[in-house]
Structure formats: C-alpha cells, structure tokens
Write a structure and sequence with these properties.
The complex is a heterodimer of chains A (about 290) and B (about 300). By secondary structure, chain A is mainly α. Chain A is about 80% helix and about 0% strand. In chain A, helix 2 packs across helix 3, helix 2 crosses helix 4 and helix 7 packs antiparallel against helix 12. Chain B is an alpha/beta fold. Chain B has 2 domains: about 210 residues, P-loop containing nucleotide triphosphate hydrolases (Rossmann fold), CATH 3.40.50.300; about 70 residues, Alpha-Beta Plaits, CATH 3.30.70. In chain B, about 35% of the residues lie in helices and about 25% in strands. In chain B, strands 5-6-7-3-8-9 form a 6-stranded mixed beta sheet, with helices on both faces. Chain B has a 4-stranded antiparallel beta sheet with strand order 11-12-10-13, covered by helices on one side. In chain B, strands 2-1-4 form a 3-stranded antiparallel beta sheet, covered by helices on one side. Chain B is elongated and about 70 Å long. The chains are: A mainly alpha (about 290), B alpha/beta (about 300). At the A-B interface, helix 1 and helix 6 of A face helix 1, strand 5, helix 2 and helix 4 of B.
Chain lengths: ~290, ~300
Amino acid sequence: MNSLTKFLAGIKKESAFFTRTFRAVAIFLAVAVMAFLNVFMLKAMPEFSKWYDEQLQEITNESGVDIGISMESTMGGLMQLMSDGASAASNLSSTFQLVLIMLAIFLAPVAGGEQKKRSIVIPYCAGLKPVHYVLPKFVLYPLVAFVLITLGNVIGAVLSGLWFEGGTVTAVAIVESSFFMGLYAMFAVSLQLCTGIASGRPNIAAGITVVGIFLAPGVLTTLHVGDKYNPFALDDFATTAFYGDLFDVYTYANVWSSVVITLGLIAVMYLITLFSQKAQRVENAGSDLTI
Amino acid sequence: MVKIRNLTKSYKNFAVLKGLNMTIEKGDVYGFIGRNGCGKTTTMNIICDVLGKDGGDVTLGDGTAKIKIGYLPESPSMFGYLSASEYLTYIAACCNRTDYEKRTSEVLTLVGLTDTGKRKIKGFSRGMNQRLGIAAAIYDEPDLLILDEPTSALDPMGRAEVMDIIRNLADNKTTIILCTHILSDVERTANRVGILVDGVMVKEGPIGEVLNVSETPTDVAVKFLTPTSEAFAVLKEIEGVNHSEINPQTGVLTLTGDDADTLCLNVIDTLAKERIIPESVQIVRHNLEEIYLQTIGGTKN
C-alpha cells in the first residue's frame, strides 16, 4: 500500500467527517442562502425605507409630534446609489465572515479535537504517519473554504449584476475576487488547523483564528503594511476587484507578493503541524494526561 | 519481547516512573497491576511510542527490528462518524494491509461485530466500542498487544465477552500486556504478573510464584447460613486446630492448623457427626487480590 492510498484513506475519512455530520450541508446551504439574502436586502432597502417612513408619518400624524427622521432620505437614498460592484463586494465580505465563523466551529473536532480525545492513538499505534494524518486535512478543508467563498461570491455577484446598475461586476472581477478571498479563507483555515492540531486545544484555536483574522487587518493598517506583503491584504484586493481594474489601485508587486507570502505561510503552518505531530503525538493533548 | 530498564518519566515536576524495570517474554500474558496514578498508562504509552521517556531503556523484540504493537487505550476514542468496517479499513491503510476486505471481516467476526453493518460508531454501546478497539488493536496481527483496562466500565456480560476474546488471543500465543484493576481477570488469564507501586516495580514474576502456590495452605474457612455459637464451639475443639477466628461481619469461622487438607476433612467429619449443615467449607489459598493488597500495604508501611 503506497503513500497515495494512505493519503486517499485520510481524505475519505475527513470527507466522511464533513459530510456525514451534516456540516457540509449546513454550511453550503448557509452560504448560498446568505449570499441571496445579502444582495436581496440591499436591493429591498429603498422599499423598506419607504415603508418605514410611511409608518413614521402615520405616527407623526396621530401624535402630532414630528420625529423628523426620514429613512428613505438617508438609508434609502444611499441604497439608490448602490452599484453592482459595491453590492457584490459587500456580499463577499459577509460571505467570508460567515465561512470563517462556521468553519471555526465546524472544524474544531478535526483541528485539535482528535488530539484532545486521543482518537489518533490507535491509528498511530497501527502505523499511521503524521504526514498521512495532517496532509489530507490541509488539502481538503482549505479547498472547501475556497469553494464556499467562490459559491457565495458567484451567487452574490450574479444577483448584484442583475439587480444593480454599474457594470463593474464582470467575469474577470468574479474570478479575481474569488481567488483572493478564497486564498484568504484557505489561510484562515490553515491557521486554525495548525494552532488546533499543534496545541490540542480546538476551541482556543477556533477563537484565535476568528479574533486574529478580524483584528489583524486593523493592526497592520496602523503599522502601514495593511495593503501589501501579507495575507490580510487579500481581503482588500478581493473587494477592490469589483470596483474596476484591481491593478489601477494596487501594484503588481503588492498583490503578488501578498499571494506568494500567503502560500508560503500556509506551507509553513503545514510544516509546523507536521512537526508537532512527529515530536509530540499524544503529549500535545490539551487535557491532562492519564498517568 | 519487552525489556525495560531504569525507565523514568516526569510530568513537569511530578515523577511518575522512577527507574522502572520490567521483563516480558514472548508468548506471555502479563498482568500489569497497580493503583490509579502509579504509572501504568504512562509505561504503556512509552512502549507504544506515543509518549517520550525521560531516561532508561526500552527494548522491544530483539532490539534490531521494529515489532508490531497493537494498543487498546483505556476508554478508546474512535471516529464516531465512521462505521466499524470503515474504521478498520482506515486502520488497514495505516498499517499497510492490502488484504483489508478479508482481514476486516476476520477481526469483526473475532470480536463479534459482524452484524453492525453501516451503523456509525457513535451509536455503539461501551462494550461494542471496546470490542472495536480490540479489533483495531489486533488488526495487523501484532507481536505485542497492550490492553489498558479493556473491561473497565463494562457490564458483567460485556466484561465476560471481552475476556473471552483476550483468552482466545492468549491461546493463540499472542504476547499480551493486560492492565486492569479486576484482579480475578488477571489471575485467570495471565501467566506473569507485575505490581507497580509509585513508579517502581515492587513484585514481578510468574503468577504461581507471586501467589506462593507452592506454600502449603493452613487455613480452612467455614461459613454457616445461620451461625450458632454451638457450631463454632464444636469446630474450635477439632483436633489439629491451632488457632480460630470469627469474622463478625461475614459470620465466617477461619480455622488454622498445620495442614489445611487434613483439617478440612476433620471439619467435614465433625459437622456430619454433629448434623450441622454449613453453607461452605473451603481451604483458604492466597489470591492475587490478597497479595496485591499486602504488597501495596507493605510498601506503604
């Protein structure tokens, strides 16, 4: 039995985890529905504002007190200016946040949970090698994140193109934005797998990933490296792609250096995870060891 | 098969193993006993190489080639979303078995899990889980099988089933380390015993040697359904009784003489003559529990 067979056995095991526990159905459905609702809500906002103002007017007429705030003139007015690019970009950011949070919760059992529960002791004793344990996870789950981002993005972008004016949502923009945001999601999932498996503390790893991904861009912007040489810049590249030519705003060097650095960091996280398994095995279990 | 010399292991500042020595020969069923927290699981994890040691030597086999080890941890955790056969197929991939269809069917039959079909492991009872753990541990026909509390938390039926499996494996000359608190299981199954106290092996050897079976028994225990002082008085006066003692909780009278066999016959004769019917008359032999408690107590003292 060669390494490929062992790798495929790992993929099969991880796929069974993801599909049979209804995680796959839940997250794919959530992404698709949320993408539709994101754009739909933006489209419906002027109508909603109009209805809200009518309700407000009725209250004013009955009470004689002029509240004087018009949703239509504020929110509704803003929404009238919403372009297809802005709608698609807004949906993409929401999709990323949804995928990040759902995967952080859903992947905890395989990102450190197996170390904590010692489910890997029997396979390791049977001859499982760390590479055949870690690699399938680093291939499958980042790929799932990429596909989810692409799915949510395509649905949101197509609907935005249909329901809003502007003309900046093109096939190229969809491909570019899916690529950058998908890669960013792959980075986030790799971070969770690395911290979870290496520490054996799945919940803390999920927390670190979510909080880290939300906080890091702000910190890096403060340090004036927000838009280059780091994975967090991919978020900006992805949304910018919907407003026109990405490379009008960012240089090739900034964009591709960030892509290469992200891929490099994913590889480094894979190696750290692999090394942690080789070096520690059950000693990295998060709970107290049985003596 | 396993030779451990001066094995040490600490968790932070807490020394668990303090120079452990242990020898297990090929074909042995080794009963490894000791209190909770004395270092049994740590020793087994080190033998399996899922835990590093601080010092000492662990030699497996002849020390030149790697031996195959099957390990059943205490309360084994498996991938609950797989079925039993899928889990074993994954184990087959881990241990490079190409005959996984045949072997999976064999081990499932051996542990009595053939009819679980597509049922997921998470729906298994504890007994089924334990049996599947044993199936995984023996899948690759290991040279050494390590079982950590294989019958813990099982009901009497489940325990009997698991012990049957272990006895079958022992009959097939599999070298087994059996770690359990159920000493009667060790007494029935093991041919060698090691008693671990606070990270040190305090007694080790063939079970007969540890139990002192060569020592002539001297005690006879007589139990009555309704103990009477008359019956006790009659028995105390039997020829050859050097000492007698009544356990007020159990109502058992223990008579001590020079030779328990002769004493036992005298007791039966006397009871028959006096037409007193006992519940049981038994020659008292040392059992593992007694030896174990003596050993633990001796160390404490």
